[in-house]
Design brief:
The complex is a heterodimer.
Chain A lengths: L12 E10 L2 E2 L1 H9 L6 E2 L12 E2 L12 H20 L10 E4 L7 H11 L6 H11 L3 H7 L3 H10 L6 E4 L4 H14 L5 E8 L4 H9 L29 E9 H6 L6 E8 L14 H14 L8 E3 L6 H15 L8 E2 L2 H4 L6 H15 L1 E2 L22 E2 L4 E8 L3 E8 L5
Parallel strand pairs in A: 5-6, 5-7, 10-11, 10-14
Antiparallel strand pairs in A: 1-2, 1-8, 1-9, 3-4, 7-8, 9-15, 12-13, 14-15
Helix pairs in contact in A: 2-6, 3-4, 7-13, 10-11
Chain B lengths: L6 E10 L2 E2 H11 L5 E2 L8 E2 L12 H5 L3 H16 L6 H6 L1 E5 L7 H11 L5 H12 L12 H10 L6 E4 L1 H17 L5 E8 L4 H9 L25 E9 H6 L6 E9 L7 H11 L8 E4 L5 H14 L5 E3 L1 H4 L6 H15 L19 E7 L5 E7 L3 H4 L2
Parallel strand pairs in B: 5-6, 5-7, 10-11, 10-12
Antiparallel strand pairs in B: 1-2, 1-8, 1-9, 3-4, 7-8, 9-13, 12-13
Classes of the chains: A alpha/beta, B alpha/beta.
């Protein structure tokens, strides 16, 4: 029994399935191949007209088959694909998943296409605005639209398809959501409530309004000319992130359950840490203390020291503030050692997948362990002298990696960190 | 593992159509009637509206400017809960306090939306028009008042609760998951103290539109929940419902007095047809050890199928029990509804008495009160069941 418990006496958490979709492609083989080759999935937006927009590029996923396009429909399709892949790899019955679902999903809103369609129905009545929309709503049946716009709809459909147990949790911790989904799964298994959990992060919400909102907050890059070169984490000339879409899924199990059913254990999750920030709605505390605390809590929870971390999967958004703050905070924890610890940003290639980012980067962290290869930070042509990190520039690198720290930070003072390891007790 | 750490409710923060605080809400339960039901502003939809609220007692003017009403309501109620638990302003305690918020999305700018829709009627290039209007007309910071996790973000900023911050989404189920997860983390020793709850602004045409698309709103004349057979659905209620929950040992150590113990919480989910909802509710109850003479606080919405099934379930599981649909007094608060139910149960348990019927369909309470069963059956999906019991005096001794 004791080989299945960690040093704190808790069940050890195994990862037995991974799935991912990003602008680089569908599935982990395609994603890893292109990620390790340093390819970018960022391109000109052609989902909607870009006339007059300050930012005209994104890492949208345009290859999913949708009956009627919408952000919730795409978010579901992405999550479905990643979860199917992960469960299939785990060898668990794809229609009778034995544990709960934790889903990081973007908030849902009625879209302009829906407002325009409803508005059209009452146009001849001289109605306008929301009283008109309400009148149109009263006049007909709109069950499909209603279901589409429910916040729990994506989780509802996933839980029905995969047969997950209990009340699924849909969550948002902004750009840390994917990591929080994993953390909730870890906690449920540690409590002994479940022996497995399906943790998914998805985001298919690149719409005009979403893009404009981030643009108005000056969060996005305006390097529109060469889309593949726009995301430049840790570079001196970085000027914002690139919005992107995708999904990541992980099947977590207690190591005991995984071993008992002879599953292939891909990695273990040693620990998680989080800490909220009360400084500002979009900016981090200037002293970095919440990020420092989140990293320290993750290391403590994992029972490892900073010297045991061989690689960091950075949040690395390519905004001036995030990358500087991430460096200074890590330096507080790692000291001089941070300059020798390789750290790279997947977002240089796939952009910032927002709600999904933490889950996708968790998948890539496990793939890093499995392949003993560090994915690069591309577009690192002009290093920022204030951030003297080994960002694994341009090209992937073979390396002996035992423990990976994955960072996720978000608006609203959200900070979550995960520690993955390939030290799997025999 | 489940009962390793008893989970106490040590703080309650309520803001609703009946005002604020435990006394006002207990009085509302005793009165059994709604107040501030606004039938004209959003006709034909009645809503339970907030009275005048002195926001400045919880939120600075500067922070108020950064928020939309749904965030103000939640942040205000969270402050009340912290105050009630003796935690407000205690930076050390708030700095380790975990937080789970159940939230939807924030208010839209209806003026901008209306302008865009009007222009779209005649625009040659809708995309170009949309890009131009949104880029020029949206307030940059409005996004931060709309993001689901920014209620929690505002609570961190205003009240310095920063141990952790998680936001659950998904209508009524979000409130159930929030209470369930907070309970499980404390019971399992993963957390000592949690601020948990939700806020809801009913005075929103964008929200009314959503629920009207599904045909879930009661129209025109307001009636109590069990009496909406011919006019089914819910009347939305503005409310903030937050609780401070903590392990008994943590509460004793800091000298915090409990309202009640949250003994157990169950959350279920799935398709509802062909008797599946009824079976899920019965199965979940069977796993909870709730005495059949418990009083019942039902979060029933008034939605036809959900409420009919819940009625049958309650009548067969609690044939003699007094049952109260608290939506009749406060309206339906969606994400905040289940946290409100748990808070009201804790209040009743502390007072040691139940309340008179809210309508003729409800039975008088007769037996002494030592156990309350709380339901949160979502109007369309997700079900929550909670069990609240009294904390005996000897348990509170330090």
């Amino acid at each position: 029994m004791s080989q299945y418990r960690d040093s704190k006496g808790r069940p050890i958490i195994a990862v037995t399935g991974l799935g991912v979709v990003s602008s680089l492609g569908e599935g982990k083989d395609e994603n890893w191949r292109r990620l390790a080759a340093g390819e970018s999935g960022i391109h000109r937006i052609d989902r909607f007209g870009i006339e007059g927009l300050r930012t005209t590029i994104a890492g949208t996923v345009d290859f999913m088959d949708l009956d009627v396009p919408s952000a919730p429909a795409l978010s579901y399709a992405l999550a479905d694909s990643a979860a199917s892949e992960a469960i299939s790899q785990s060898g668990i019955d794809e229609t009778d998943f034995p544990g709960p679902l934790f889903l990081a999903a973007p908030p849902v809103e009625m879209e302009w296409q829906h407002r325009f369609a409803l508005d059209q129905q009452v146009q001849s009545d001289g109605e306008q605005g929301y009283s008109g929309l309400l009148k149109a709503a009263r006049a007909g049946k709109h069950e499909d639209l209603y279901e589409l716009l429910l916040f729990n709809r994506t989780a509802d459909r996933l839980s029905a398809k995969f047969g997950t147990k209990g009340l699924p949790v849909s969550l948002s911790t902004a750009c840390a959501s994917g990591a929080t989904a994993v953390q909730l799964g870890v906690e449920a298994i540690r409590r002994g409530e479940a022996s497995s959990a399906l943790c998914v992060g998805t985001d298919g919400s690149v719409t005009t309004e979403a893009l404009v909102r981030f643009s108005l907050l000056s969060a996005l890059t305006t390097n529109n000319d060469e889309p593949t070169k726009a995301a430049r984490p840790f570079s001196k000339d970085r000027d914002g992130f690139v919005m992107a879409e995708g999904a990541g899924a992980l099947v977590l199990e207690s190591l005991e359950s995984a071993m008992e059913r002879g599953a292939n254990v891909l990695a273990i999750i040693k620990g998680c840490g989080e800490k909220a920030d009360h400084f500002h709605r979009t900016r981090s505390s200037p002293d970095g203390s919440p990020v420092i605390a989140a990293v320290n809590r993750a290391l403590d929870d994992a029972g490892v020291g900073f010297a045991d971390i061989n690689y960091i999967n950075a949040h690395g958004t390519s905004t001036p503030e995030n990358d500087r703050m991430e460096y200074f905070s890590l330096k507080e924890v790692f000291g001089e050692r941070i300059h020798e610890t390789p750290i790279s940003s997947n977002k240089s290639m796939i952009g910032h997948t927002l709600t999904a980012a933490g889950a996708i980067e968790a998948v890539f962290s496990v793939l890093t362990l499995q392949n003993q290869t560090l994915p690069p930070t591309i577009n690192y042509d002009t290093p920022d002298p204030d951030i003297p990190l080994d960002v694994v520039p341009h090209k992937a690198r073979e390396a002996a990696v035992t423990n990976v720290l994955s960072n996720s930070f978000g608006f609203g003072g959200q900070n979550a960190c995960l520690v993955f390891s390939n030290e799997i007790p025999a | 593992m489940k009962d390793k750490h008893p989970v106490w409710v040590t703080g309650i923060g309520l803001l609703s159509s009946h005002g604020e605080g435990p006394d006002a809400h207990w009085a509302a339960m005793q009165g059994g009637k709604p107040t501030n039901v606004d039938t004209s502003s959003f006709a034909p939809y009645p809503i339970h509206a907030l009275p005048e609220t002195d926001w400045a007692t919880q939120i600075s003017r500067r922070d108020m400017r950064q928020m939309e009403p749904w965030q103000q309501i939640g942040t205000y109620a969270a402050g009340l809960a912290l105050e009630d638990a003796g935690a407000k302003g205690n930076e050390d305690l708030c700095g380790v306090m975990d937080m789970i918020v159940a939230a939807g999305g924030g208010e839209r700018d209806l003026e901008v939306d209306t302008t865009v829709m009007n222009e779209a009627r005649t625009a040659n290039d809708r995309d170009a028009m949309l890009n131009e209007r949104l880029s020029n007309d949206l307030r940059p910071t409005l996004f931060l008042a709309q993001l689901s996790n920014l209620l929690a973000g505002n609570i961190s900023i205003v009240h310095k609760v920063t141990g952790s911050s998680r936001t659950f989404m998904g209508e009524e189920g979000a409130g159930v998951s929030a209470i369930q997860t907070a309970h499980a983390r404390i019971a399992g020793g993963q957390s000592d103290i949690v601020l948990v709850g939700g806020g809801y602004n009913a005075a929103r045409e964008d929200m009314l539109l959503l629920f009207e698309l599904g045909g879930y709103l009661t129209h025109d004349d307001w009636a109590p929940v069990w009496s909406r057979k011919d006019n089914p659905g819910f009347a939305l209620g503005s409310m903030g419902a937050f609780l401070v929950m903590e392990s008994a040992e943590h509460a004793r150590k800091r000298g915090a007095k409990p309202y009640a113990e949250l003994k157990d919480v169950a959350g279920t989910h799935g398709p509802r047809g062909e008797g599946r909802l009824a079976k899920r509710l019965s199965d979940a109850l069977a796993g909870m050890n709730v005495p059949s003479n418990s009083a019942v606080l039902s979060g029933a919405s008034g939605a036809t199928n959900a409420t009919a099934t819940e009625t049958n379930f309650l009548q067969s599981a609690f044939p003699e029990a007094p049952i109260r649909a608290f939506g009749s007094v406060f309206g339906h608060g969606v994400e905040a509804q289940f946290p409100l139910g748990i808070a009201l149960a804790a209040l009743a348990m502390q007072r040691g008495e139940f309340c008179a019927p809210f309508e003729a369909a409800e039975r008088e309470a007769s037996e002494p009160l030592d156990s309350i069963f709380v339901t949160g059956v979502g109007h369309y999906r997700a079900e929550g069941l909670g069990h609240v019991v009294a904390v005996k005096d000897e348990e509170t001794a330090g």
